[in-house]
């Protein structure tokens, strides 16, 4: 097995925006679909359970990972091209990259992806959303591998068959690994120029591990500002509003997963306000706390363990159920420990 994309005893905390996680017996970081297929064949041979993820922005890894698991990071799977069928983007492409390509190609269709700290594959998986826009609005066809297929062939599904609703999809109910997608774009000639322009920006702006949230924030704000300076233009107001909104809630100041719980629209208030009504902001357990700035965020204050985050998650669920008679559903994916 090529050790470039298979590691032993890898530190999962380096692959998580929570900066939490113990050492995985096996971790793979394939750069192509062919390498990913090789990883899956290796997992089958060794009787390992694959767990795939993108940037690790919506995941809590365990302090003691199971030894029979192989963790597969797709964040190095970042190919993009235009062919006769449309615009293909691999699963590891950061969603924020889509916003820059949209900006450089003259469309606002992808502005909602700016500073969404996740990859295209993960966004397709859970129908990532920012206010009134979501991934299913820009998706045409998804490419995936069914882990139950002994040959691990790449299959496709049109957006109409994905069963999308609020942060829900067909992918969440099947053992499928999303490997890429055809995305919609209003002008493919402009898109080709936009892709080249973003490739140029990548050579200019310093890039560091985007799973560290301050790095992620600095990189994408710098990319937008550099584009504006080079074109004697302004950073779009839609980008500025995201910076203001997320910056005012300190989304990128501490390791976190962003929103921990899905909103319960039947209740009528977002989860941040529900937690506020219980005066739980600032609640601390071990090295973790409920954010002092946003009730639906639980942050790593610097030395948190997975069990600290889980304790606060359960505390919120219990308190909300006792006060308002419903149990909030986690948006955060908590990986089972040993």
Automatic annotation (TrEMBL):
It is found in: Cytoplasm. It catalyses: UDP-N-acetyl-alpha-D-muramate + NADP(+) = UDP-N-acetyl-3-O-(1-carboxyvinyl)-alpha-D-glucosamine + NADPH + H(+). The active site is at residues 259, 331. GO terms for molecular function: UDP-N-acetylmuramate dehydrogenase activity. Its EC number is 1.3.1.98. Residues 19-188 form the FAD-binding PCMH-type domain. Keywords: Cell cycle, Cell division, Cell shape, Cell wall biogenesis/degradation, Cytoplasm, FAD, Flavoprotein, NADP, Oxidoreductase, Peptidoglycan synthesis. InterPro entries: FAD-bd_PCMH (IPR016166), FAD-bd_PCMH-like_sf (IPR036318), FAD-bd_PCMH_sub1 (IPR016167), FAD-bd_PCMH_sub2 (IPR016169), MurB (IPR003170), MurB_C (IPR011601), MurB_C_sf (IPR036635), Oxid_FAD_bind_N (IPR006094). Its cofactor is FAD. Gene3D superfamilies: 3.30.465.10, UDP-N-acetylenolpyruvoylglucosamine reductase, C-terminal domain, Uridine Diphospho-n-acetylenolpyruvylglucosamine Reductase, domain 2. It is an enzyme of class 1 (oxidoreductase). Pathway: Cell wall biogenesis; peptidoglycan biosynthesis. Belongs to the MurB family. Cell wall formation. This is UDP-N-acetylenolpyruvoylglucosamine reductase. It comes from Paenibacillus gallinarum.
């Amino acid at each position: 097995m090529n050790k470039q994309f298979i590691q032993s005893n890898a530190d999962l905390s380096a692959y998580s925006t929570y900066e939490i996680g113990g050492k995985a017996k096996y971790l793979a970081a394939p750069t192509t679909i062919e390498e990913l297929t090789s990883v899956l064949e290796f997992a089958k041979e060794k009787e390992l359970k694959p767990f795939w993820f993108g940037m690790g922005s919506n995941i809590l890894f365990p302090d003691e990972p199971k030894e029979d698991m192989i963790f597969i990071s797709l964040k190095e799977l970042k190919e993009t091209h235009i062919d006769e069928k449309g615009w293909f983007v691999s699963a590891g492409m950061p969603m924020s990259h889509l916003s820059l390509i949209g900006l450089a190609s003259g469309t606002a269709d992808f502005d909602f992806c700016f500073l969404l700290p996740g990859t295209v594959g993960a966004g397709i998986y859970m129908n990532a959303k920012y206010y009134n826009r979501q991934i299913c609005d820009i998706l045409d066809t998804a490419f995936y591998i069914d882990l139950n297929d002994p040959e691990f062939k790449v299959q496709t599904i049109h957006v109409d068959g994905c069963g999308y609703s609020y942060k829900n999809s067909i992918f969440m109910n099947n053992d499928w690994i999303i490997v890429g997608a055809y995305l919609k774009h209003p002008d493919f000639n402009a898109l080709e120029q936009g892709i080249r322009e973003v490739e140029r920006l990548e050579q200019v702006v310093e890039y560091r591990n985007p799973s560290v949230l301050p790095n992620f924030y600095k990189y994408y704000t710098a990319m937008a500002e550099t584009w504006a300076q080079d074109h004697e233009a302004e950073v779009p107001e839609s980008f500025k509003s995201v910076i203001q909104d997320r910056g005012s809630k300190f989304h990128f100041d501490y390791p976190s997963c962003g929103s921990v719980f899905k909103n319960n629209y039947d209740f009528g208030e977002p989860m941040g306000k529900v937690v506020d009504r219980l005066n739980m902001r600032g609640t601390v357990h071990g090295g973790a706390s409920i954010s002092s700035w946003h009730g639906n965020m639980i942050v790593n204050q610097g030395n948190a363990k997975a069990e600290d985050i889980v304790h606060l998650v359960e505390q919120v669920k219990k308190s909300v159920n006792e006060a308002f008679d419903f149990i909030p559903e986690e948006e955060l994916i908590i990986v089972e420990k040993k």
